Amino acid sequence: MSKKNVAVIPGDGIGPEVIKATLEVLEKVAPGQFDFTEVAMGGNAIDKYGEPLPDFSLKTCQNAEATLLGAVGGPKWDNQPPDNRPERGLLGVRSGLEVFANIRPAKIFAPLASACPLRKDIADKGIDFIIVRELTGGIYFGKHEAFKTPDGERAARDVMEYSEHEIRRIAHVAFKMAMGRRKIVTSIDKANILTVSRLWRDVVEEVAKEYPEVKLNHLYVDNASMQLIRVPSEFDVIVTENTFGDILSDEASQIVGSIGMIPSASLGDNNRGLYEPIHGSAPDIAGQDKANPIGTILAGAMMLRYSFNMNKEADAIENAVDEVLKAGLRTGDIYTEGTKLISGSQMRDEIIKRL
Ligand code: IPM
Ligand code: MG
Q: Which atom of ligand 1 is nearest to the CA of 278?
């Protein structure tokens, strides 16, 4: 059997630590089955090659069956011109791989219930929803411009643009997911103000007709941010454009306890996905063995599931994570009184031990 070809982007900050942990977990659960190729992207690529995403880096990812990514960015590159920042590399990988659908699950792990900052009666109703974030369009990919007005004042603009097919395909992803779950889609927009949102709403409603069993709701993004902490149990699948999804998924991560816990899968029209935790590079704790590797390890499990159809192995990883949490072991970000604080590498070892 030929090995599965996976491009690996450790990135910056805590990226390399959480990736190292994840590769060890994958190797344990499916020994000898992967061929990992390390790829430079982000700040480290700027240092080495002068740009965040050299062509050969993108090519390696495009030729791989899946790409696994840690995190990119950090204060060291804050003074880079906007189009040469580490984050640009990330956007370049996402668009170069044409992974337009970013799946971000938000679920309370039972043993972490006490880390949920919401009132107990709210959390007790259960929190288990998925954010389907459009990932390759909208304002992050529109024209960015800094300019001077005729009277010499500094001004800037970023353009938000979506075309119908971009909305249609992400809506299909959301409705299909909902069909395998509780059959509720909440589409989030700002249709009371934005023209893009009105198009978004129209197209989502057209797509909904193909899924008569699914209940579709619409919420304005400001209201949605409120409802997510008021009645999180009522959400099943959320579908929204790039920026709103970016913001709401950070909010969701706090609702379920820690941003360090949440994986994501970015998918396109084929199985070739991009898998990453939703947290950033956390430069403040990089290199101190404090980072929680669980988000990335679970992203690895999503890779097994979505790109390689290795459901048994994915289940094994998710169960091992559950077991470790049940045993009361916690990295700093999910530590609460009465549990045991461990380092990032201990967390990795404890998970591997249970595989
Ligand atoms: C995320 C991150 C990225 C994004 C940044 C680093 C460009 O915040 O994956 O949510 O906005 O997409
Ligand atoms: Mg974000």
A: 9
